[in-house]
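Supplementary Methods. Inverse-folding protocol.

Structures were first reduced to a discrete structure-token string of length 221. This string, shown here, constituted the complete conditioning input.
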């Protein structure tokens, strides 16, 4: 089956931000008197506020969750967003995909504002067919909403003709719930065992490695 569209995660996949999000969440939690080991926070990166906060603070009510999410977003925007850099060859991978007439879709648990910033950072405005952010859905990854919404923007394309590229188990789990295969990259600093357990069909070091092996990868086969 020829792949007609590729749904790319952004944070940790195309842009090197996972460690920044860990620090922003650490500060946000500290402001409400909560403290977690950074690895514990890292292991939740890839989820949106609606999934991350209840995992770490199960007693937080909806208002507290929203407040923490807003605090994290404000800290990330103020201290980290402008210094975030794309991974090597991230733009080239999107351009290569587009050049093969495969639709490029950015499907992220980030806010729409962050997503717009990243599109500019990746110089990808002319390459992207559709986007989905946390602002478009009720629940973020690992719920299927983000990828399901992206599929709705690809009329006539079957899930079997789509692949997800992501860096976290939550990308892979969300894709599976939509019947989409997922390729993982190690740049988000999750262990291979975690990615494999979630169902990754292939694992690459980063997007540069994926681009180098594109023709024989699940994206190009």
């Amino acid at each position: 089956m020829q792949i007609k569209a590729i749904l790319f995660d952004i944070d940790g996949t195309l842009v090197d931000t996972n460690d920044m999000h860990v620090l922003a969440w650490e500060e946000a939690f500290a402001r409400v008197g909560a403290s977690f080991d950074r690895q514990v926070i890292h292991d939740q990166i890839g989820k949106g506020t609606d999934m991350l906060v209840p995992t770490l603070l199960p007693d937080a009510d909806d208002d507290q969750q929203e407040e923490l999410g807003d605090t994290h977003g404000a800290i990330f925007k103020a201290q980290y967003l402008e210094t975030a850099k794309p991974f090597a060859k991230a733009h080239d991978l999107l351009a290569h995909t587009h050049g093969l007439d495969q639709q490029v879709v950015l499907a992220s648990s980030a806010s729409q504002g962050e997503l717009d910033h990243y599109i500019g950072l990746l110089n990808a405005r002319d390459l992207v067919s559709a986007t989905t952010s946390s602002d478009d859905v009720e629940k973020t990854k690992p719920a299927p909403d983000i990828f399901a919404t992206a599929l709705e923007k690809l009329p006539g394309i079957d899930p079997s003709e789509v692949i997800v590229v992501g860096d976290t188990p939550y990308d892979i789990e969300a894709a599976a719930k939509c019947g989409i295969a997922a390729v993982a990259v190690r740049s988000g600093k999750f262990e291979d065992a975690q990615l494999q357990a979630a169902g990754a069909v292939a694992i690459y070091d980063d997007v540069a490695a994926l681009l180098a092996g594109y023709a024989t990868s699940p994206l190009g086969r």
